[in-house]
Predict the structure of F420-dependent oxidoreductase-like protein.
Amino acid sequence: MRIGLWIDEEGRSVAEIGAVAKAAEDAGIDRIWFSQRLGWDALTLIAGVAPYTKTIGYAVGVVPVYPRHPIALASQALSVQALTGNRLTLGVGSSHPYLIEGMFGLAMDRPAAYVREYVEALGPLLTGEPTNYEGERVIARGQVQIAGAEAPELILAALGPRMLKIAGELTAGTTTSWAGPEVIEGFIRPTIDRAATAAGRPEPQVIAGVCVAITDDPDATRAWIRSRFGAAGDMPAYRAVLDRGGKAGPEDTAILGDEETVAKELQRYADAGTTEFLFCPVGTGAELERTTRFALDYA
């Protein structure tokens, strides 16, 4: 099982993030992950941080597909590939109604059908091939070519059966949120594997993003997670995966405790078929430092 590290970019400069990325590379972390939120543009941030490192991979988890046309996203992703020496993993996803409809004012009906068309259009564009794609809602005609840029690895955020089917059939795998090892082993892994096998594709990646804190006060950290991320439990896609795992909220999927406790939980994820464990350090300043140090040592 590979080890990834999510870096919280909020309130940080490129130099500060670059220092963390360099430490992660020196420790043997496989990939650095950034979220696409309402501050830094994640792909632009990767292009800015990459010069602080030499070999480590970078990933965005994930770019919402509705606000960006496939041609525009292909152009940006291939630009990042050229600037980073082809170290990008491009994660895409549907996002959630509160963001797409509430903030962008875009209709989000039948998201799985839209995502399928989007990924079908995006795939050839990422390889530099000319595209003449016309779906029910996605039209993409054109070609994106950037010298030195190779097609980035493409993954799809998927938690439900239809999205997992798309991920298995059309991409290199999926990245998950709020999914414990029991959900990965019993639902996500077999669902995406069946789709990939039927499509004649290799075994997909399953990247598990998990909040982790090396802490002497798990209850306090759990309460902090509830206050920060509790609203995710009301989003339909996240609510469904939490229910599959019998969890009341995102805070119940976190790994909290001492180093031995965290190591045991990591093994559970590995045994469940997780291909990459994505550390998302949380908690107080001291807990963040302790957790990040553990992740670097574990790698």
